[in-house]
Structures are given as C-alpha cells and as structure tokens.
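Components:
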Amino acid sequence: MTLNLAPMVDVMMCLIIFFLLASKMVAAERYPVDLPWALAARQVEAGDLGQRVTITVRRAHDTDEVAEYVVVDWDGRQIVERVLQPGEVEALLAARAARATRENQTLRCVIRADRRVMYRHVEHVLRGCGLAKIRDIVFSVNEGSPPEKPG
Amino acid sequence: MRQRLLPAAEPVPNLAPMVDVIMVLLVFFLLGTSLDLAQQGILRTELDPRSGPGGGQRVEINPLIRIALGDVDDGRSASIHVMEYALPAGDFQQLFVYLRDRREAGADPENPVVIGAETTVRWEFVVRAMDAAVRAGFKNVQFAVSFRPGSVPGPP
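Structure:
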C-alpha cells in the first residue's frame, strides 16, 4: 500500500508560499531606520500587531528637514516598497481604514520613524490616523537606553 | 487463443524526498518570520476617540498632565514644560521623576497625559517624553495633534 502524499504536498506548498510572503513582508517592514530608544518599550509578538498598516518615516536628502513616507504594498505581482507624498498618506490611511471597516476588522497603525526626523513629519501621520479614525497607534522603538556616544 | 494484456501500471513518483525538502523550508520560514518580529520593541498609544476635525462642537480635553516640548539649539535638545513648570532642557530623567512623584501622590494612571511638541522638535525627544510617562505608570499617553498644520501647541 502506498500513501498518497499529494494532498499533503499541496498543503505544505501553500504554507511555504504563505511564510515566504510573510517573511518578505516583515523584512520590508523592517527597512533599516535609526529608531529612537525607550526603556519602557515592550517586545512585539507576532499576534500583537494583527491587522496593521506600517508607515516608515525616514530622512530624505540626508537632512532632518525633509522626510519621506514609505509603506509596504502589494502591486498585484509582488511586495513593493512605495514612497508616498505627504498628501498621499491621508488617502492611504483612509482607504485602509475603510477596507478594515468593510471587513469588520480593527486596523492598527505602526509608525516607524527615524529618531532624527522632525515631529511635524510624524504628526502628519498621526493627523492622517485621526482623520481615518484609526485609534490604535504603535510606535516602533529600540528597547533600552541609547548607546553612549564615544568621547 | 487470444492473449489479454493487462494495462501497464502507471509509475508513482516517490514524493518522500520532496516532502522532506518542503518541511525544511517550512520550518525555516516559520522560524525566520517569528524571530524577525521578536526583535522589535514598541510603545503604544490610542488617539482620543473625539479627535479629528469633525463638524460638530469642539470638545475640550482636560488632561491631568500636559507636557510641552520646544526646540532648543537647532534640534540638539528640547525644552520641557510640564504643567507650565519648566524642567532643564533635555533632562527627561527629571521629567520621569516629576511624573513618578505625581503617580505616587495619587494620580490616576488612566488619566490622560498629553504631549505637545513644536513641529521642529526631533522625534526622539517626543519618544523620550512618552517613555518617561509610561515608565512613571501612566497608561493613557496621547499626543496633541493639530488639524491645522502650523498650529501645534508648543511650550508656554
């Protein structure tokens, strides 16, 4: 008697594709940013973040004055990093919030901001969340106190 | 006499090695994904449900504690005002001590602490103010967000 392994292979292939995409999504969401430090930070577990939209606020043109907003998105074929104009942030948050409402889910906004950007850039995202009625906000930080500067 | 021929049996591929490889890949991606997530730390907040521009009446929020941060020395530091009381610029440990004393004096941890900052203050100082409030035991830390750009509350 030979076991029919084909259905098992099908299921495992689906799982592989899921984890492959998920790991790529997580990797893209963890685009290297010089995050601020916080002693009160707590570790994230996979289940904690749930349905979320992650916005990375990073320095642009090598200055603190200008920032760009980056989101991870699916363009129909692959996971891509999209750089948004400030005006597009509100539209994106509103669209995601509307979709979450249709699907009867709670959306959370994860903000990964470079520690050197000006508050106005982060405030812009907070304003977008307020307009989209996304109440649950998570800030990505490094755990602990900042390393001592040499000298 | 006519001879009957049995149909040839179709060869069955041996899927066992493939299953082995897929299992290894599965475990790799499963562990890789969860390890990656576990390295990140977070601070959480909730926006006030009454926030937003809206068309209705204005709602006055009376926080227990108001923290205002101002830009000092072109972004190198931040001035700290807590309830109109000035702390040394950039001394977030003092802010933590002040907030902890308020908690020990009986302040309700559920009462909102609202952080307002000038638009030019570096994000790291805002996070340090939030960090001080969370470490002091306040659970409801919020941000003053202007819905008219350029009118963010700063230090008094």
